[in-house]
Design brief:
The chain has 26 helices and 21 strands. It is an alpha/beta fold.
Length: 793
């Protein structure tokens, strides 16, 4: 159970807010510096960034009878899920955001020419009234501009002249109103007037870009949406760096869209008018020939008037002639429509208006055919011919074309029967006409032909006027609800938000780097690293040695590190309960973790408490204690082990700390481990137990077996780990010793805890080591400003 708790200890830990705060406080100068740096860079970015405004407009799409939506084919496609039942508003939404309309706006407004004025450290884009001049390109070299936009600088030279330069230092000069041939194309330079005209010494620049690229950029900046399916309105939004320019672009787009809609609707009237004009030309020529024949007949026969008999005959036959003329006109129109359809059998074209044919079913078919054809052409603005909706319309148009041809043939047959019947009834008058003298009979034939042609001509003129009236009354199927209007403030960049985010990022960068460094570090840096690596108890923690020297504990010292050694002494009294427990062994995982330093100061702090302490330098491979304490001894443990000295000869009292005795290691032997196994070593520890209160053994790291050999004589083991030196993987060694109980009463001592460098080591607790100094300030390093104050006093 204990092992399972250890394995999941790290998972059970939560986020330690106090640790994070302490870590941030330790690096606050770097955080402040990075925050100021990122804030400065952000201010520079915001200075050069171009603000963007949102321009909004909305239009209403008028409801129309969408005949194609109710068709059988479209319903079938919708039922199987190929179509979503697109409404007229959805189609208009695709049309208004099409590339074709935006390209027309760019070309009409010449949006591929932008103007700039250099102010401060950046170029500011100007538009219309802000500019003292305008450049109108008569032609563009689109292929050249496709590679790279061309930039020109223009300097005003008085009121009448200007000088133009490009990036290649080529120059042109001219007067206002001149046409210059530039690499980008021919351009006319016009001087404008107004109160906003800057000083003449100002340098301007303008950039000519490729039309298609500018169109793509404008189309990307445009968004359109339908608020919901219950309304037939479209909301338009355009992003622009200049509010007035964006408003003009959006208003122009709406204008182009509405004009395109009107032009589409007028195509039917134009087609009808063109058809009538052709027929009028033919009938007019025939009527002129008949009238010319009548004139020549009367002049040749010197006739001024016909007889009363002829007049009566003409009056009697006028009703038949009028009906026959009307029928023949209708028959002529039907034949013309048949010729029109047969001439364009492979090409979908508008059929002339059905008002020319007095047949309701045929008129409905023609109207439906033209409506579907217009919907198909408008759909092709935003779709291809492979679109299911377009293919469905193609099928419907072919079916309607077949119905139209069949109805025309049927109507022509019935119309021919009516004409023949009228001609038969008119035949009864032929006998009477034959009784009229030959000259009068000939005149009667001319008059009858004239009446028929006049009736047909007047009918065509009437229909032509109706078509003209229909065209003049054509309006767009959309109405502007709200004209383009810019928002008062730019929507980006959000300066305060970006600045706040930049400062926050700047503050977090040092913290993130420190955290990343600790995350990637293989050495221990926090108490949690130790606790996650081993179950052994941490008996004490020793801070960084800022005092200097091998001994940091004195009778009067009140430094934090001295207090930490005193706390370690107190904790050892609980660990070594009983008079028989006296031997304390210190070891570690590797050299350089501070065993000699801790052993020496632990022995000193125990001697200061009035105890008799023996400090044994049993690191026979790299002894350091005697040298750091200045013990000049010729003999040590190695001499005693081989019988060259007595134990009393190798115990050297320390003059500065009464009660402290030091046993040097002596000459470095070739076989340290074998010396530790001798009986004289066991006898030495028995003697020390009888004559000393505490025996502190400084031994080797666990890289060799010396420490494990000496552990049989120890009552407690202090295992040294050093912050920033001991590797995390090396904690597996004391953990294995602790679990297998290879060394008695193993506890950990954490050495060299730097509270400034390793902020948050304690997770924010600090264990009271930040309370300052007691009493005397002899051990506290003096600050430079304190010395300065004394000098000034």
């Amino acid at each position: 159970m204990q092992q399972e708790e250890f394995e999941f200890r790290e998972e059970q830990q939560g986020v330690d807010i106090r640790k994070i705060i302490n870590k941030a406080l330790s690096i606050w100068p770097w955080m402040l510096l990075c925050g100021i740096l990122t804030a400065g860079l952000t201010v520079a970015y915001l200075y050069f960034s171009v603000p963007a405004y949102k321009i909004n407009a909305s239009i209403l799409i008028k409801d129309q009878d969408n005949k194609m939506s109710g068709s059988k084919d479209m319903s079938m496609l919708q039922n199987i899920g190929l179509l979503g039942g697109a409404s007229n508003v959805d189609n208009e939404l695709q049309i208004i955001q099409s590339y074709t309309l935006m390209n027309r706006v760019v070309r009409d407004m010449q949006l591929n020419v932008t103007y700039f004025v250099h102010k401060g450290l950046k170029d500011i884009q100007y538009y219309d009234a802000q500019l003292p001049f305008k450049v109108y390109f008569l032609a563009f070299d689109e292929e050249l501009l496709k590679t790279d936009p061309l930039k020109y600088e223009l300097s005003l030279n008085g009121k009448d002249k200007f000088v133009l330069k490009d990036k290649d230092k080529r120059s042109w000069s001219g007067h206002w109103g001149d046409t210059l041939t530039l690499p980008a194309g021919k351009a006319v330079f016009v001087r404008t007037a107004g109160d906003l005209v800057p000083a003449d010494n100002q340098v301007y620049s303008f950039v000519a870009a490729n039309t298609d690229q500018v169109t793509a950029g404008c189309a990307k900046a445009l968004t359109s949406e339908i608020p919901n399916k219950q309304v037939s309105t479209i909301n338009l939004t355009l992003e622009s760096s200049i509010p007035s320019k964006g408003e003009d672009i959006l208003n122009k787009l709406i204008e182009v869209y509405m004009q395109a809609n009107v032009d589409d609707n007028n195509r039917i009237a134009d087609s009808t008018t063109a058809f009538i004009d052709i027929r009028l030309l033919t009938i007019g020529e025939e009527l002129a020939n008949i009238e010319k024949n009548i004139q020549m007949f009367m002049q040749r026969n010197e006739l001024a008037n016909i007889t009363e008999q002829s007049k009566a005959l003409i009056d009697n036959t006028s009703e038949y002639a009028k009906s026959l003329a009307q029928q023949e006109v209708q028959l002529s129109v039907i034949e013309a429509l048949q010729n029109h359809l047969n001439a364009n059998i492979n090409n979908l074209r508008i059929v002339p208006a059905s008002m020319m044919v007095q047949d309701a079913s045929l008129s409905n078919i023609i109207d439906k055919y033209n409506t579907l054809l217009m919907q198909r052409e408008r759909m092709l603005l935003s779709s291809t011919e492979d679109n299911p909706m377009v293919k469905s319309l193609d099928g419907q148009l072919m079916n309607l074309r077949g119905d139209l041809v069949a109805n025309l043939s049927s109507l022509k047959s019935s119309m021919q029967v009516a004409v023949n019947e009228l001609r038969r009834k008119s035949g009864s008058l032929e006998s009477k006409i034959r009784q009229v003298p030959a000259k009068e009979r000939e005149f009667l034939d001319y008059s009858r032909q004239q009446a028929i042609k006049q009736e047909l001509y007047l009918f065509l003129l009437q229909k032509r006027e109706e078509a003209a009236i229909s065209k003049s009354s054509t309006i767009a199927n959309a109405r502007v609800i709200d004209a383009a209007k810019s928002e008062s403030r730019p929507f980006k960049p959000k300066k305060m938000l970006i600045l706040a985010a930049a400062v926050l990022v700047g503050l977090l960068i040092p913290f993130a780097l420190v955290y990343l460094k600790e995350l990637l570090s293989t050495k221990i840096s926090t108490r949690a690293d130790i606790e996650n690596g081993t179950q052994a108890t941490i008996l004490g923690e020793i801070g960084h040695n800022d005092v200097g020297g091998a001994i940091v504990v004195t009778k009067t010292s009140r430094s934090p590190i001295a207090e930490q050694f005193r706390m370690l002494r107190t904790n050892l009294q609980y660990l070594l309960a009983g008079d028989e427990n006296k031997v304390i062994m210190l070891t570690s995982s590797m050299p350089g973790e501070g065993k000699s330093f801790v052993s020496t100061n632990l022995a000193v702090v125990m001697a200061l408490s009035g105890k008799k302490v023996a400090l044994l330098e049993l690191d026979l491979r790299k002894p350091r204690i005697s040298q750091s304490l200045g013990v000049q001894a010729g003999q040590g443990f190695s001499n005693y082990a081989i019988g060259q000295a007595n134990i009393e000869d190798i115990l050297y009292p320390n003059q500065e700390y009464p009660g402290l005795y030091i046993m040097p290691s002596g000459p470095i032997p070739p076989n340290p481990a074998e010396l530790l196994l001798l009986d004289r070593t066991r006898s030495m520890f028995a003697y020390l137990r009888e004559n000393f209160d505490y025996i502190i053994v400084d031994t080797t790291p666990n890289l060799v077996t010396d420490a494990q050999l000496l552990s049989m004589h120890a009552d407690a083991t202090l295992y040294l780990v050093r912050v920033g030196v001991t590797h995390k993987d090396q904690l597996k060694l004391p953990e294995a010793i602790y679990r297998e109980k290879k060394m008695p009463r193993l506890s950990l001592v954490v050495n060299d805890v730097n509270y400034k460098k390793y902020a948050g080591y304690y997770g924010g607790s600090g264990y009271g080591y930040g309370y300052g100094y007691y009493g005397e300030e002899a051990d506290q390093p003096k600050k430079w400003w304190k010395g300065r104050k004394k000098e000034m006093a």
